[in-house]
Amino acid sequence: MNITEAINYIEATHKFGTRLGLESMKNLLAEMGNPQDKLKFIHVAGTNGKGSTSAMIAATLKNAGYNTGLFTSPFLEKFNERIQLNNVPIDDESLVAATSFVKERIEVLLAQGEPHPTEFEMVTAVGLQYFYEKRTDIVVLEVGLGGRLDATNIIKDPVAVVIMSISLDHTDYLGETVAEVAFEKASIIKEGSDVVVYPQDPEALKVILDFAKSKNASVILADPKDISIESFDGHSQTLKYLGDHLDLDTFQLKLLGSHQSLNCLTALEVIALLIKKGYHINSDHIKAALSAVTFPGRFEIFLESPVVLIDGAHNSNGIQAFVKNMNQYFPGKTINLYFGMLADKDIEVSLSFLVPIATTIHTLTPNSDRAMPAETMAALIHDSYGKTVDFYDTMDAAVKSIDLTKKDEVNVFVGSLYMIGEARTLIRKNLM
């Protein structure tokens, strides 16, 4: 098996769809020797902010000298991004080896009449095997979908549980109210867990606290008053930690956007908890990590004159945060919006935030069988807002449409991560 065959094998399991539940994952990991039971985890759930917060925690642990795994999804440009060790994506050779190992175990189970694991179960198993083989000290493990029945919830006793911002998303799987979604996500809390919670909607917070109480878990609530934005530009922002859990004052955060301040605060509370548990992390480790941390595709600026940026805001809460950032970073500017979204997302609410800030609107079709076609999106915007909207058949054509001579304009690709990754590749190829 080579790298192309390995990735093709994994992606072919997409045909088995999304199947929530832990039985198949339990069987597969048991056949693999239960590598997850030999690892330590920080388990991260939520609707928005999981990836950025996980990246901040992992970067800090790595800077402190810990052999640190990071498991996130989806990838933007290359599959290997989903499984990282010390901020470096898994190499092709290791990915092939872990995939071959997992494939052999799947074939044993299939011969016994067990169902084939889903794509996400497969990827999770490959990641866990790799982290085990690399003798990882700790893994920052991002939930795929929900929490209660997510494949990552196979882990037994996390070092810390993190619950990020919760809002309506994947309602066909997770429930039609914020409370129902919160229950699914809070269900990664285990008996006696230490839990750090991002500032929440009261309805979601009540569910989280009730669930934590039922599990005798200790809860740390990130308090927005404990972080302030001192200044920002197109390269970083200066934040000030005002809490009393860390010996930290003013520091630089490379990730842009006001929403990242609360993500960062949540990460800092996790780090404070780890220090309390005996992890050797100091303020220098934290500052160095946060000043350099990257998480591609989140309010990421490539050019400044004219501005070209991408943002993987793919639901209404993410879009709302994106619009707030645009108003802060580029007030009064001409905004050329390139937009695409999955059809099962809350598109009309997202458009209610996006359309008012856009000077021109161009639509694209994300690379997913769940995508709303660009032409359909363009018609929806025109019918709802009376705006003239262009649509593009390819991302290449959209990127090449940017007029680099118009130095004062802002060109923004926003929406589904299945679109943003392709935009990122072509922007770097054609414009830089």
From TrEMBL:
Q: Can you give the residue ranges of the Mur ligase C-terminal domain?
A: 297-416
Which regions form coiled coils? Answer: none
Q: What is its EC number?
A: 6.3.2.17
Gene3D superfamilies xrefs? Mur ligase, C-terminal domain, Mur-like, catalytic domain
Q: Which UniProt keywords apply?
A: ATP-binding, Ligase, Magnesium, Metal-binding, Nucleotide-binding
Q: Where is the Mur ligase central domain?
A: 44-270
* Catalyses which reaction(s): (6S)-5,6,7,8-tetrahydrofolyl-(gamma-L-Glu)(n) + L-glutamate + ATP = (6S)-5,6,7,8-tetrahydrofolyl-(gamma-L-Glu)(n+1) + ADP + phosphate + H(+)
- Spell out the SUPFAM superfamilies in the cross-references: MurD-like peptide ligases, catalytic domain (SSF53623), MurD-like peptide ligases, peptide-binding domain (SSF53244)
The record's Pfam families line, in alphabetical order, gives: Mur_ligase_C, Mur_ligase_M
What EC class is this? ligase
Under PANTHER family, the record lists: DIHYDROFOLATE SYNTHETASE-RELATED, FOLYLPOLYGLUTAMATE SYNTHASE-RELATED
Q: Which family does it belong to?
A: Belongs to the folylpolyglutamate synthase family.
NCBIfam families according to UniProt? folC
Quote the protein name from its UniProt record: tetrahydrofolate synthase
According to its UniProt entry, this protein's organism is Acetobacterium tundrae
